[in-house]
Amino acid sequence: MGQFPITRTTAPKRKPADDTLTFGKVTTDHMFLMNYEEGKGWHNPRIEPYGPLSLDPATSVLHYGQAIFDGLKAFRGDDGQIRLFRADRHAQRFNRSAKLMSMPELPVDVIRDSFDALVGLDADWVPHKAGTSLYLRPTIIATDVMLGVHPAHSLLYFLILSPVGSYYKEGVKPVRILATDKHVRAVKGGTGEAKTAANYAQSLAGQRDAEAAGYTQVLYLDGVHRQYLDEVGTMNIMVKIGDEVITPPLAGTILDGVTRASTLQLMRDWGLKVSERPITIDEVMAAGRDSSLKEMWGTGTAAVVSPVGTLGYKGEDVQINGGQTGELTQKLYDAIVGIQYGRTNDAHGWTSVVKVPVTA
Ligand SMILES: *Cc1c(COP(=O)(O)O)cnc(C)c1O
User: Fold this and answer.
1) N or C: which end of the chain has fewer CB within 10 A?
2) Which ligand 1 atom sits nearest the alpha carbon of residue 203?
């Protein structure tokens, strides 16, 4: 992409103390923007002071939800270096989402440049305290101003940053999840493989019902048989039955999680038996009853892993590993976090160091 203009803020915001950070409530001083017009392509990359977007009320994204995003993190290592975790893979997935939602792709190096440039400029916003990080939220929205339904001819790419607190303030903590055959997350041919706004809008009802029933999250089943595990909330799901780790395959409904891919790789490195295959809720519940269900966890950027302590289905609860975080779940968490903060050898080259401009 080369050079692009940077307009610095003249009114830097106050940075909150690291131990007050939660998720997504605070944003940094700058944002990256770039426009797309049909015939002209992606153009006008720039960094500006963070601030509201001005949109005509007839802007298509506000009506039909043609929008994609991704989410990744930058970490301040013990050595003071700032590292992005698997930025290329996130950029590639962002483009896959774009394609699925009928949007033009961006060159991966342009996405990468936007990550590096904005994190470099707002480097002081990467928190220091253990477990904290800077969350990157790249987004594309359709900006055609007209109420007809069609793939947009004009779009806006923006990247914003948010310092976030440790997901686990008191250690990795198991949750209660509810498998449901009432709500469905995705069907083949639909939008399950894309990180798109609509998937989140439609997940709210299932989430609300699970919370009302005393659970933390929903475990979605497939839309056809209402039997096969799909995803848990907005995380990928993994179970360990006996000595086999099983996760549903990427077969048309499941988001290709970067944490999913990373944990699968680590477990294969460790010589564990790992299967990407369909698995039914009946099989998991049966394993829960006879205690061959050893561990169960979700994977995602926000938490890394989220152990399931209790699984509910059709009025029955099974406890997993006595409701405690399993050994493998904890080992995966420690391994990923170790790489992210530059504490352990990054054998697969998953992290990249962000150059901080001297003037930032
Ligand atoms: C983002 C997301 C995940 C997790 O992906 P990561 O790349 O690991 O953060 C899983 N499922 C859904 C539906 C998602 O949107």
Assistant:
1) C
2) 13
